Amino acid sequence: MRRLLLTAAAATAATIALSACGTTEPAADKSNKSAERITLTGASGTKVELDGPAKKVVGTEWNVVEHLVSLGVEPVGVADVKGYKTWDTAVPLTNEPKDIGTRGEPSMDTVAALAPDLIVATSDLPAAALAQLRKIAPVLDLKAADAADPLGQMTGELDLIAKATGTTEQADKLKKGFEAKLAEGKQELEKAGHAGTEFAFADGYVTGNQVSIRPYTSGSLIGAVNEKLGLKNPWTMKGDPAYGLAATDVEGLTKLGDVEFAYIGSDGDKGSTPFTGALAGNAVWKSLPFVKADKVHRLPDGVWMFGGTGSMESYVDSVVAALKK
Amino acid sequence: MAVTTTAPAAPTTAAASRKGGAVAVTATLVLLVAALALVDIAQGTSAVGPAEVWKALTGQADPADASVVIASRLPRMAAGLLVGAVLGMAGAALQAVSRNVLAAPDTLAVNAGSYLSLGLVAVTGVSLPLLASSGVAFVGGLVAAAVVLGLSGLGAGTVRLVLAGSALTLGLTSVTEGLLLLFPVQTEGLYAWNQGSIAQNGFGGVLWMVPLAVIGLAGLLMVARRVDALALGDDAARGLGVPVRATRVTTVVLSALLSAAAVTLAGPIGFVGLCAPAVVRLLARRYRGFSRVRTSVTLSALAGAALVIGSDVVLRTLVSSDTAVAVPTGVVTSLVGAVFLVVLATRGRDTGAAAPPERLRIRSRAVFLTVAGTLVAALIGLAVVSVLLGDTKLLLGDVMNWTQGRAGRAVTFVLDTRVPRVLAALLAGAALALSGTLVQAVTRNPLAEPGVIGVSGGAALGAVVLVTTVPTAGPTGLAAAAFAGAALASALVFGLSARGGFQQNRLVLVGMGVATASSALISLLIVLTDPFNATKALTWLSGSTYGRTLPDLLPLAVVLVAAVAVTVARRTELDLVSLDGDTPRLLGLGLSRARLGFLALGVLLSAAAVAAAGTIAFVGLVAPHAARALVGRRHVRVVPVAVLLGAVLVGTADVVGRTVIAPAQLGAGLLTAVIGTPYFLWLLVRSRGEAR
């Protein structure tokens, strides 16, 4: 132990000696301010002041990143780039942003090194972290999700980010396109005789010997889109106040009755597709009316269930395609 | 159902009236388990109630209802009974063979091993069919148990066994929690799994486990008489011709097998292995026959089954069925078990003998000075390196500029956030080490540390309550909440264990009860209020220095300085208190008062540390042990070395966590355990050679 400690001490001494007394950054200079100021209010009520439309933007959550990409703003920093590329292929990244670490604990050092004009964060980050991010750059903090009005929350976020980045025209275009897509989807479903069809969306996870199922209630973004498509949400349970997600088990599915049942999984993660895997041999599952009638749909991967207009448009397409089959 | 119908043989040695009482108690327990099992079948998320269950059992129900009863309700009930029974047996056997009331499957690291192996599989994305993934959990659990057994030295001290188990549990759990934080999507559901749930996907798993349970029970009953002999002490048993070592190995292996099987079926169901034998021990005080291993193992199986199935029934009765699905069974058994444990500990007599003091070489003054000097040098080096290293590498000139307020924007920002983090890590490490030293000295229990006596748990619960109710809470609010929680928890623990002057087993048992209850409540809060904010709570709980500012550290610094001063002034008293129960009394020292004072100081220290850097387990356990091994047991030497070691350990963990996988980062607490575990296990192995 003593030898170990001595070696450690010697090594650190050597390191210090080797790190010469230079600097990695020149002294600070005063930047002049432009006239076009933008003032926004974040979810926590904090005012955000910008000298002009933000160009170098960092996003700490995937929905925020999706909004940025859709608006044509290439984010300079994104949390968990690899995860985004796996779970949100509906709106792929158009550049190679810097990975700023995990969504829960983005690295302050890395964000600071990017010297962004604006950081868009959500309330999933601890307040202390938001306070520190505000020292790097203006921080637009958004509510992570709101089950009271999921669609309004999504478009509201889009509008705020558009205002901050000077892309309100693009945002209006996106919103109009999304409305059109919803109307078109609704029409197609009506034509196919699916007006008012009961449509249950869920995802599920297998861990060990257990299967947990996560119903998307009407408070979820997916649930809200389903309603706009003229579908009925047969889940009766109450979701959580932010994401509108509930929890149940296989038995709980017996309350659904004869509905259409859809889910999204990921091929990279077999634990996320219990409906074709672990449950296939389950007696309760096999006795469910919608399983017997072959009304279980696996929608394509890569639609981020908590994303923005792009993800939701892909989702509408996949629902229409599945039900028209 | 085999478990509920096997009534244990009535003890032959007890007096006739007592014998009748024992039979009555056993019969009551059997009836209770059967009744609970029946109620459990009628509860669930579907509309299948008692009437439909009755129809299904008599073959008159419609096929859908029948399938719910057969593929969901019956497997769940069977799993609950089996898991409870198996854990009860394993716990009873382990406690008998180790003569330690704290021995349980959880302390053999079986659960932690399974948790990690499942986590690794989840992260690699390897697809496994259901039984194979159960197999992975099983193998992980057995490997962990094997490591603990191998390192602790079979047949050697039993304290060592529990120590090695707890250490490995902390280390492995930390690695898994790191995986949860780094791969939140892939490991979805794993956090909930770790709370344990008896819900089953069909009968497959249960059928797979029944033979294992039968083998385990039969094996334990076969070695039971030899284990009884061990109660007389190793030497006496050897004198009776009992192969001590072989008996111990067999029993522990059988228990590991049983608990690994339980973990495979239902995830870790907390506390049953600890609690069920404790209930039986209470009964054994009235009915002497129950204290024999053969009966106590069987009765513990019944008590365990009652505990698990009862918890499930209580949960499903209290909350709506859809909410009940989201609440893991293990959380409820932990809560029920914790209350039980606390009640038992406060009502029962303190029967546990003090652990024998560690055998340590007397070290010379030169050794102490060398160790202390080296540690100071390491600390200074570490501080400098920590400030320079990070995602952004800095040079000393940058730091000079910063101290004079002349640095540029980026450097200023980096150092503004980095320096408080480095200080938080160093101070928290020092405070926790000192707290651990005090608590271990006072309780004379090598397992005691702020986490074990429930203080860290209380602090964390306070903080999480605030995080879930006021999402925008700032660092000051969090610190206040942590302080409040720690104060409440320690008031509870010390208040309940005060009677009889803080006897060591009572204190630790009550403490463990409070610690488990608080961690169960934390899980419950997260699951019920905001299941998708778990990352936030986990981040904070994993002992992170993320987002600290200098004002946050002020209380910690003040408490630390004051505590060091008091400890140094009262070092002689501390030496006496840590020696044994009688010497201080002979010398006229008010034992209770001295102990209370040192404990209060320990609580204050660990609450301040939790407030500043989250729950950092392990430092309080490792640093004092390591310090004693390095410089002997006199506190005038142990305290400075432990404090320095703690600071270096957490500081190193913090700098490694921030840099190695940058820009992603891991909490200091996780890495403390990852770094601390191998060192601690190595210490255990080494001291085994030395002690002999």
User: Strand fraction band of chain B?
Assistant: under 5%
Mean pLDDT of chain B: 78
What string gives the helices and strands of chain A in order?
A: HEEEHEHEHEHEHHEEHEHHEH
Describe the largest sheet of chain A: 5 strands, parallel
Strand order of the largest sheet of chain A: 5-4-3-6-7
* Cα-atom radius of gyration of chain A: 24 Å
Class derived from helix and strand content of chain B: mainly alpha
DSSP helix fraction of chain A: 25-40%
- Roughly how many Å is the radius of gyration of chain B? 26 Å
Order of helical and strand elements of chain B: HHHHHHHHHHHHHHHHHHHHHHHHHHHHH
Low-confidence stretches of chain A: 29-35
| Shape summary of chain B | globular
Major beta sheet summary of chain B: none
* Total beta strands of chain B: 0
Category from helices, strands and their pairing of chain A: alpha/beta
Indicate the topology.
The complex is a heterodimer of chains A (325) and B (692).
Chain A lengths: L1 H17 L19 E4 L5 E4 L6 E3 L2 H9 L6 E2 L2 H7 L10 E2 L8 H7 L3 E5 L4 H10 L2 E4 L7 H16 L2 H24 L7 E9 L2 E6 L5 H8 L31 E5 L18 H5 L1 H4 L3 E4 L9 H16 L1
Parallel strand pairs in A: 3-4, 3-6, 4-5, 6-7, 8-10, 10-11
Antiparallel strand pairs in A: 1-2, 8-9
Helix pairs in contact in A: 6-7, 7-11
Chain B lengths: L1 H4 L10 H26 L8 H8 L5 H36 L11 H15 L5 H23 L5 H25 L7 H4 L10 H27 L3 H6 L4 H23 L5 H15 L6 H26 L2 H6 L2 H19 L17 H24 L7 H8 L5 H35 L11 H15 L5 H23 L6 H26 L4 H8 L8 H20 L1 H9 L3 H4 L4 H23 L5 H13 L3 H25 L8 H24 L1
Helix pairs in contact in B: 2-4, 2-13, 3-4, 4-9, 4-11, 4-12, 4-13, 5-6, 5-7, 6-7, 6-11, 7-29, 9-11, 9-13, 12-13, 12-15, 13-15, 15-21, 16-28, 18-23, 18-24, 18-26, 18-27, 18-28, 19-20, 19-21, 19-22, 19-26, 20-21, 20-26, 23-26, 27-28, 27-29, 28-29
